Amino acid sequence: MKIEQIYTGCLAQGAYYIESNGEAAIIDPLREVSPYIKKAAQDNAKIKYIFETHFHADFVSGHVTLSKQTGAPIVYGPLANPAFDAIIAEDNQEFKIGDISIIALHTPGHTMESTTYLLKDENGKDHAIFSGDTLFLGDVGRPDLAQKAGDITKEDLAGFLFDSLRNKIMPLSDDVIVYPAHGAGSACGKNMMKETVDTLGNQKQMNYALRADMTKEEFIAEVTDGLLPPPQYFPLNVKMNKEGYDDIDEVLKRGTKALSPNAFEVLANETGAIVLDVRHQSEFVKGHIPRSIFIGIDGGFAPWVGALIADVEQPILIVADKGRVEETVTRLSRVGFDNTLGYLEGGYEAWEAAEKETDTIESISANEFKNRMEANTIPVFDVRKEGEFLKSHLPTAHFTPLDYLNQHLAEFPNEETFYVHCAGGYRSVIAASILKSRGIHNLVDVAGGFGAIKKSGIPVTDEVCPSTLKK
């Protein structure tokens, strides 16, 4: 028996390859499916089943493409109703893979079709669970993504989740291994551990949601407390996972079309495409195409694209470093952004060589920022997340989190120069690019972010009442 976790850090997502005696199963595959097919070929195994724990919201799964290419059926748990052919498993239904078996345990709560897959080894012993978004390490799945107006509430879903955990998962042996669908950084939970594998026994000890003496009412209150609004692209990804999508090869063919600077400019004007610049922030501040949006490929790329662009049908044109175009299109497709129209051949250097209009962002060091703060009272805007701001911040900073930047546009000065910072310099440049695309140019980026600001010796505070924060 072989179990391999295939973890994708930028999505904080775990897919799984399971093989036994020439047969294999894939759980929650990513959009690009060739790695799973290659693994099976290397093991001289046939992919027999593709298991989906639920209709994912934060990424587009590769189940449809993988099924087409291998002939393996897609398996969902009870209550799933996909638009394509699939096996809708009954609760406790068994699936044989070589010498092992996988049992579908219906565990509604995160969504109504959510299912945990219990793996039994060659001796019939419970070995591991693939818990999807039902049970994370240190947390459980948020119960507000599948609610429908007038039909079911997040409190209802939290109640179902409580029952699922108590009746289906917690009775299992402490030595059962937990393989979740996500880890720290995912928006599908609140407080996940950085580890990606654990034992159920350890989770029973340290996961707040698995306390033995917890009442259902306490569980509902704690699980629903402090939930931030989900990213706008989540429902669109659910729709794609439920109804189907174009194969990744077709998306790559469209998105990797090389465009000269003139053709790039014409297409941008004709289609209203967003020009997405994925180079490093230090390069973007030195020069970029006017009104282009920066989201660097080497940061938290896909989740920020989803959070800030939101509409997966939005046409996109890419500015990237040489050799990174296919990677960019692939990572966009993972979160459902399939409408990439092409890329700037020769990159930003070709745009400059064509003597096209360019723009820059003023970016200063933390030491220079300190000098300016000491000389004058200057407006400062902190675009980090709420938890970061609460932990420590500049006393005079305005809290304008990047996730909700559009809701804060009226707060930025019209003429006075203001300063923007994040934690390390990545998100502040994203924010600056968005503000400039909306005609707000009187800004300065603080390179190195809050980390560099603290090192410069500027006084900071960690006292703030959460109720005073606006989003």
UniProtKB/TrEMBL annotation:
<feature type="domain" description="Rhodanese">
    <location>
        <begin position="269"/>
        <end position="360"/>
    </location>
</feature>
<dbReference type="InterPro" id="IPR044528">
    <property type="entry name" value="POD-like_MBL-fold"/>
</dbReference>
<dbReference type="InterPro" id="IPR036873">
    <property type="entry name" value="Rhodanese-like_dom_sf"/>
</dbReference>
<protein>
    <submittedName>
        <fullName>Glyoxylase-like metal-dependent hydrolase (Beta-lactamase superfamily II)</fullName>
    </submittedName>
</protein>
<dbReference type="InterPro" id="IPR001763">
    <property type="entry name" value="Rhodanese-like_dom"/>
</dbReference>
<keyword id="KW-0479">Metal-binding</keyword>
<dbReference type="InterPro" id="IPR051682">
    <property type="entry name" value="Mito_Persulfide_Diox"/>
</dbReference>
<dbReference type="Pfam" id="PF00581">
    <property type="entry name" value="Rhodanese"/>
</dbReference>
<feature type="domain" description="Rhodanese">
    <location>
        <begin position="374"/>
        <end position="462"/>
    </location>
</feature>
<dbReference type="Pfam" id="PF00753">
    <property type="entry name" value="Lactamase_B"/>
</dbReference>
<dbReference type="InterPro" id="IPR036866">
    <property type="entry name" value="RibonucZ/Hydroxyglut_hydro"/>
</dbReference>
<dbReference type="InterPro" id="IPR001279">
    <property type="entry name" value="Metallo-B-lactamas"/>
</dbReference>
